[in-house]
Design brief:
The protein has six helices and eight strands; from the N terminus they run βββββαααββαβαα. It has helices at residues 84-100, 110-123, 127-144, 176-179, 201-219, 224-240, and strands at 2-15, 19-26, 30-36, 53-59, 67-75, 163-166, 173-175, 187-188. Helix 1 runs antiparallel to helix 6 (224-240), helix 2 (110-123) runs antiparallel to helix 3 (127-144) and helix 3 (127-144) runs parallel beside helix 5. It is elongated, with a radius of gyration of 19 Å. The N and C termini lie far apart (47 Å).
Length: 242
């Protein structure tokens, strides 16, 4: 038996009359699928809600077999108390983690970012706080998938200052001077990703457009789950930038 604490509930699928196959995200175990007996029953149904923080006792009888989980409640995600944007954030975060992460791979870097954003949804955080955090999570996810962006220097000149764009081809930053003639073909680099300036509405929109470009092109492109995840993102972005 392995104790996993904390873990985030990110996906649920009914199994038989009363059980569920649930997927959880944790730092040490990464994405974990497990059979939960009675998961659709009156006692566990409130515990197994998307976005909730739980503790797990995982038991696996043999390699390759679906684990059995005993679930213990830690924190209930109260996003439903804070309107459609908070609910859309929970939906997208859950879909993103369940769609993009490989099962059984530890996620010490990504888990705290997911956990913090689920917590922001639960607390009804403002779009000005959620937006930059979401952009940073998506950048970290792209890096984890081997698709990271290089925002340290200009792809054209090597300059490390006045970076204003990102090349969609090289995934590297471009300085304002080098990029202005090609601005229509480049992606805007929001200053908050460089530790400069405020994360206002325009900067958040630029950041979400930046990460969204690479997610759409490289990650959320094929398959039903990927398309559903992208739809959830579009709904969230619309609410955050409204």
């Amino acid at each position: 038996m392995i104790r996993v604490e904390p873990a985030l509930v990110v996906a649920l699928a009914p199994h038989g009359e009363h059980a569920v196959v649930a997927r959880f995200l944790s730092a040490d175990q990464g994405l974990v699928a497990a059979y939960v007996q009675g998961g659709r029953g009156r006692k566990l149904r409130p515990v197994l809600q998307i976005g909730n923080r739980v503790a797990l006792d995982l038991v696996t009888k043999s390699a390759g077999q679906l684990a059995f989980a005993t679930v213990h409640p830690l924190d209930t995600n109260m996003a439903m108390m804070h309107g459609p944007a908070a609910l859309a954030l929970v939906d997208y975060l859950a879909s993103l983690s369940a769609t993009c992460l490989n099962e059984g791979e530890a996620q010490p870097r990504l888990f705290p970012l997911f956990d913090a954003l689920f917590g922001a949804a639960a607390a009804g955080a403002l779009a000005t706080d959620v937006g930059p955090a979401l952009v940073r999570l998506e950048l970290a996810l792209l890096a984890e998938l081997g698709l990271g962006l290089d925002l340290t220097s200009c792809a054209a000149t090597g300059a490390t200052s006045d970076l204003a764009f990102v090349s969609p081809k090289s995934r590297q930053a471009v300085s304002r001077g080098a990029g202005e003639p090609w601005a229509a073909k480049l992606l805007r680099l929001p200053v908050f990703l460089l530790g400069e300036g405020e994360s206002n509405a325009a900067a958040i929109a630029d950041g979400l457009a930046l990460t969204g470009h690479f997610l759409a092109r490289e990650v959320l492109r094929d398959g039903v789950a990927a398309k559903r995840c992208w739809t959830a993102r579009e709904r969230l972005v619309s609410l955050l930038t409204r």
